[in-house]
Amino acid sequence: MGKRVRYLGEDEHGRIFYQRNFTEALRPFLSEPRSKHKVSLGVRFLNASAMRVWEAANRQFETDVRAATVAKQLHEKKTTGKFDRLSDDLLKFLVDTFERDWLLRLDAALKAQTDDRVDRLKAGIEWMMPEYLGWRAENDREAMEEHWGPQLDALLEEEGYRLDPNDEDARDRLLWALNETALKAKKPAKKILRGKLVDIPSPPHRPARKAQDVPAAPEDSFESIVDKLLESKTAPVGAPTKESNRAALRFFREACGSPAPKEITRAMVGDWLEMLAQKPALVPKDQRNIPLPKLVTLYANRDDVPRLSQKSLRGHASALGASWKRAVKAGRIDRDWHNPFSDPHLEKVKVRRAPKGFSAEEVEAIFGLPMFTEGERPRGGKGEASYWLPLIMLFTGARPEEVAQLLVADIYKDPKSQQWVLRITDEGLHPHKGQQRLKNGETGRTFPVPATLVDLGLLRYHAALKKAGEAALFPMLRVKGERGNLYDQFGQWWSGFIKDHGVVLDGLGRQPMREFRHTWTTAARTVGVPREVMSYITGHKQADKHAGDDYGDRSPLGQGINKVQFEGFKLESIRPWSG
Prior knowledge:
By secondary structure, this protein is mostly helical. Helix 4 (141-159) crosses helix 5 and helix 7 packs across helix 11 (310-329). The chain has four domains: 8-80; 84-198, no CATH class; 222-329, no CATH class; 360-563, hpI Integrase, Chain A (Orthogonal Bundle), CATH 1.10.443.10.
């Protein structure tokens, strides 16, 4: 008698199908939320071919269950404020998983790609291995973070682990381990790309260890309430809000413990701000895990150390004040209780306002850097992004993340006008970021590719990417942090790079890339570009809109982009892109 085959059913025509139901607890965490996995076997009687379809369907179901279980566990850790401790067993599991996944990807690439693509992969391995050795020899943590950091974040997310972001020692250990694993995997990787058989390691055994408290706040504490609201699906908040709240909550916990809302007084908040005012403005990396009271004691009587500004103090208080209001609206805090974080007793400091936009001298200094004049591509600049991203910012006035997330498909020839146009949208899927995003849903726009960018070779660069099969306009950019932005890592490098090369921006609060947005706006005003046209091109919402502003197609406003000239800006030294 044959073995009974499970999970089978019949449709109205008598054809057999495979079906298994997902538990209700897992359904929200599936990649595509659904109640069951159903696959037709295409036959009325089981045979060998149908059994192969059954086996594939069953493997897929179990894979989906594992992935959803991991996603559910990760969600629970985030909502309860728990983290995983980086034990030796967990480190080994993550490293072994990374090595296996890397070799599997190379094997898949060999089977799916052309000989030319395989040659590029081989060359890439040969080129990068000396870099990995150099990082090891110099213990170059910054280079490892830049290269391996995004892959480490993706690995932790996929495997359902959450490490304390303040535990830099754990992250350093993992980055070092990934670098060592890449060096170890050089030989099998090269064998794979030569078409030789390699024993790819079996899936490693997942260590049985529960998430550790860091510590978790009591259920009725203000911190616990805020943490849950930050992860709310009914009233979601953005990544910047999460970051500012969690930083403020950490400092408040270290100074005051984890009190319930009714236990927090204005005096307690005042004492917290008094202690926070003694915190150094810049803390060395090896001291960032030191609790606030101990850090303040460590730097007591150090008149040479700058402290947190009044603006920073007000920002921390405002973050928790806004969270208190959010908790009141959600019914987690009694409406009659006074918000102790509102209107803190802080001095209002007048800050010298920096100029809006770059001066002509600053623009000349920036575009006199070697990546623009000599064709250099500095390490950390993410290849051609170091050349094109600042130029596109200058000639379009777009936001940094809007440019960073551009796809090759966002530059195309308009079938009606036969013009090459550039589209800024939230409709595309970026290969590393996923869904494109805009500041708000109304700021998508399309306009002609600025003539100067055409002259500098943007269309040639675009054609080269298209020929290489790339989807992203800047293929080397990777997302960083909870915001999932592509620009953040590049922006951090850019700020340090221009400063190291003598480009010093005068005034407080200058933004080394976003200033291009102000520069473009000033240039547009200078030549009399109408405000409605400027708002459309830069993606600004007009506060004083008229009833008819939303009538018709607004894209013709984009034609005004080539009216913008940069008189007095010495840009002649920029070398056109040559590939």
